[in-house]
Amino acid sequence: MRFFWHSEVLNQVATHELLMLITNLIKKQFFLAVIVTLLLAPGAYALHPLNTDDTGTEGQGRWKAEVLGKWAHNEINGTVKTASQIKTAITAGITDNIDIEVGQPYKFKREDDNGAVSKVDGIADTEIELKWRFYDRNRLSFALRPALTLPAGDDGKGLGTGKLTYKLFLLATKELEQWAFHVNAGYGKNANTADDRTDIWNFSAAAEYEIAQGFKVAGEAGIYSNNEKASGIQPVYTTAAVLYYPVKHIRLDLGLRLGLNKAEPDYTVIPGIAFKF
């Protein structure tokens, strides 16, 4: 009788240990699956550091966090102006074809007028954007990107407009194997307290090429309305960029934008990093 009682106890212990082993294996497999999903999930990134956007969205339930930089240099008649900013942005996939993004820039401005130096810095206007891809067939897609800026920056220091502004862009993307082509057209209502131009148009086109897995080069050209009412010259620019994905959920990028006329800064350096989760 004692022998059978010991056998039953041993069987219970063995069964418990087996269940614990199976549970641990399931947990390890689940953790591994999560890691693999994060590393291999296809990334949908906007085309930073270009101004031109693509029609890609993150996908329902997915998130993207970005830290984006910009440093512009311009010199006219002995006056040197530099403007830089750091922007943090969060993008959430509402559905598979709708994203919402909230961004907050912090700006730095410096002007050297023949030795007379002035500086200013502070938070700029908060940006809220929505992207809706409404057509996607045969590797051709179209999207709308409405946006608002909230007057968070000090307009007296030139860090914001002082008023609510809005804009709407139409985006188009065509994919061809290693190539992708993008065209953007947009209009914005630039309400402001500085007596700048309020009706702003934007047009740009870009191409990107995947040299190898995880490594792309891109270029664009664009034109937009000059904020200054007194100027009849519209800023024109071109940008060259490299985009590197060490793993699919991380993007490192660097761009160089050149002004093609005096209305655009001489050059702008544009770095960025994005994390997708």
Choose one word for the global shape. globular
Whole-number tally of structural domains: 2
- Please give the share of residues in helix: 10-25%
Share of β-strand residues: over 45%
- The counted number of beta strands is 13
- Intertermini distance: 59 Å
The ordered string of helix (H) and strand (E) elements is: HEEEEEEEEEEEEE
Can you tell me the CATH topology of the largest domain?
Answer: Lipocalin
Number of helices: 1
Structural class: mainly beta
Low-confidence stretches: 1-16, 25-43
CATH class of the largest domain: Mainly Beta
The pLDDT mean sits at: 88
Q: Mind describing the biggest β-sheet?
A: 12 strands, antiparallel, barrel
The H-level CATH homologous superfamily of the largest domain, spelled out, is: Autotransporter beta-domain
Task: Name the features.
Lipocalin; 12-stranded antiparallel beta barrel; 57% strand; globular; disordered N terminus
Question: Care to give the gist of this entry?
Answer:
The chain folds into 2 domains: 1-40; 44-276, Lipocalin, CATH 2.40.128.130.
Explained architecture:
This protein has one helix spanning about 1-40, and strands spanning about 65-75, 80-95, 100-115, 115-125, 125-135, 140-150, 165-175, 180-190, 200-210, 215-225, 235-245, 250-260, 265-275. The chain is mainly beta and about 280 residues long. The N and C termini lie far apart (about 60 Å). Mean pLDDT is about 90; it is low at about 1-15 and about 25-45.
